[in-house]
Hints:
The chain is built from one helix and no strands. By secondary structure, the chain is mostly loops. The protein has one domain (11-66). The model has no long low-confidence stretch (mean pLDDT 74).
Amino acid sequence: MKMDLTIKITPKMVTDAQGNEKKALVGHLGTHFDVMNKEFPLEYAERKGIVFDVSGIKNRDIDCADHDILR
Length: 71
């Protein structure tokens, strides 16, 4: 299963990130590899993982106790 984790970077997000982390640059917000103005195969980003359905949690942050890691 492929999940699109794309997020829109707003000018406010850039300002906030630069205020909190000196190395934050627009091309690196939200990612750990530089993809600005480049193309790469999606297979390079495929990793094994576990998906937890936390869609029923509303009006609060998701906590470790909200999912069963042993399932």
